[in-house]
Design a protein that fits this description.
Order of helices and strands: HEHEHEHEHEEHHHEHHEEHHEHHH
CATH class of the largest domain: Alpha Beta
Shape: globular
Number of helices: 15
Number of strands: 10
CATH superfamily of the largest domain: Periplasmic binding protein-like II
Radius of gyration: 23 Å
Oligomer: single chain
Distance between the termini: 90 Å
Structural class: alpha/beta
Length: 341
C-alpha cells in the first residue's frame, strides 16, 4: 500500500516536471541582432524572459548587421533587429531583410509618426539632437536650428562629422522641411560657424565646450545624462554645460529613434513579435527611460528626472519616414559644401 502511494506521488511529480519542461520548451527562444551594447539592454531581455519564459539569444555589433542578415539569407537565425537611429533602420529596410510587423498592440502604442507606413519598423524610444551650451558664455535659453547658421555663432560651434548618422538625420530633417537648396545654404552657414574641423563624438563636443574651444556643441540628449550620472571622469564636461532643447522655427525639437524590426526570415516569428510588443509595454518603456536616458514612445510613461531637467520636449511633427527619405540628399550636401574638410 505504502509502495503504491509512493509510486503515485512519484508519478504526480514526474507529470508536473514533464508539464513544466514542455511549457518551457513551448515558450522557446528569440534571436536578437542589436546595435545597442548588450550591457545596456540585457536588463530588458532578462525582464522579458522572466515575464514570458522566452529565452533571448543576442548578437551585438557596431556595424554590418543588415549585411550579415542579407548574406545569411533564408538561413539567418535573426528574429529581431534592434537599431539606433533612423539611418540604420532605413539601411535594414533597403537591404530587404525585414518584414512588416503585424501587431495591433504596436500600432496602438507607437504614434504613427514613429512607425514605418509599410509596417517594417517601429520606434521604441526617442532621443533628441540638442545643444550643449557653455554655462559661462551662452546667455540664451532658446536656440533654433536655423539660428546655428547665423554669423553671430562664427567660430563658436563644435560638432562631430557631418556624415555621422546622428547629424545625417538632423540634416535630412532640415532638407525635408525646407528643400535641398535651403538645406545647402544652411549647411554652408553652419560650416562657417564651426570652431574646428568636425571630429570626435557627442561627448567630445561637451569636452571642447568645457575647454573653451567653442561655446556650443551639438549632441544627443542621453550623452549629457550619461556623463553627469554615470561617468565621473567626464562629469566635469557636463557640469560646464547645460542642455538647450532647440526647435525648428514654428516647429519642435528634432528627434530620432531607437527602432525595432522583424527579420524577413525570422525562424521564431511569433516570439519575435512578442518581444517587439513587450518592448513598448509600460515596464520596458520605463526601463528605457531610466537606464538609457531616452524618451519613451509610449504616452504616460515618466521621463527620467535628469532628462526632464532639460525642459519639456516638444518633438517636431515631421514623420521620421520623411527624414529617412532625405538621408541620401543630406549626405550629398555634406560632401558638396565640404562640411568635414
Amino acid at each position: 500500500m505504502i509502495y503504491l502511494r509512493v509510486l503515485a506521488a512519484s508519478a504526480a511529480v514526474l507529470s508536473l516536471t514533464t508539464s513544466f519542461v514542455s511549457e518551457a520548451a513551448a515558450n522557446g527562444e528569440v534571436n536578437v541582432y542589436t546595435y545597442r551594447e548588450t550591457k545596456l539592454i540585457q536588463p530588458l531581455f532578462d525582464a522579458f524572459t522572466k515575464d514570458t519564459g522566452i529565452k533571448v539569444n543576442v548578437v551585438s555589433a557596431s556595424s554590418g548587421l543588415e549585411q550579415r542578415m542579407k548574406a545569411e539569407g533564408a538561413n539567418s537565425p535573426a528574429d529581431v533587429l534592434l537599431t539606433v537611429d533612423i539611418g540604420r533602420i532605413d539601411e535594414a529596410v533597403q537591404a530587404g531583410v525585414t518584414q512588416p510587423i503585424k501587431s495591433e498592440a504596436v500600432d496602438k502604442v507607437v504614434p504613427a509618426q514613429y512607425r514605418d507606413p509599410d509596417g517594417h519598423w517601429a520606434g521604441i524610444s526617442m532621443r533628441a539632437r540638442v545643444i550643449y551650451a557653455s554655462k559661462d558664455r551662452v546667455k540664451q535659453d532658446k536656440i533654433t536650428y536655423e539660428e546655428l547658421a547665423d554669423p553671430k555663432w562664427k567660430g563658436k560651434i563644435c560638432i562631430r562629422s557631418g556624415q555621422h548618422i546622428y547629424n545625417n538625420a538632423l540634416f535630412a530633417a532640415y532638407a525635408a522641411k525646407y528643400g535641398e537648396a535651403k538645406a545647402e545654404e544652411w549647411l554652408r552657414g553652419l560650416k562657417a560657424n564651426l570652431a574646428q574641423k568636425p571630429s570626435g563624438g557627442d561627448r567630445e563636443a561637451a569636452r571642447d565646450v568645457a575647454a573653451g574651444k567653442c561655446d556650443i556643441g551639438i549632441g544627443n540628449t542621453y550623452y549629457w545624462a550619461l556623463m553627469m550620472n554615470n561617468d565621473p571622469e567626464k562629469k566635469p564636461w557636463a557640469e560646464a554645460t547645460r542642455v538647450i532643447l532647440p526647435t525648428f522655427e514654428g516647429g519642435g525639437t528634432h528627434v530620432n529613434l531607437s527602432g525595432v524590426l522583424l527579420a524577413k526570415n525570422a525562424p521564431n516569428k511569433a516570439n519575435g513579435t512578442k518581444l517587439i510588443e513587450w518592448l513598448v509595454s509600460e515596464q520596458a518603456q520605463q526601463m528605457y527611460a531610466d537606464q538609457n536616458y531616452e524618451y519613451p514612445v509610449r504616452s504616460g510613461v515618466a521621463v527620467n528626472a535628469t532628462i526632464a531637467g532639460y525642459g519639456k520636449l516638444v518633438p517636431d511633427p515631421l514623420p521620421i519616414a520623411k527624414i529617412a527619405a532625405n538621408r541620401k540628399a543630406a549626405a550629398s550636401l555634406v560632401d558638396k559644401v565640404g562640411f568635414d574638410n
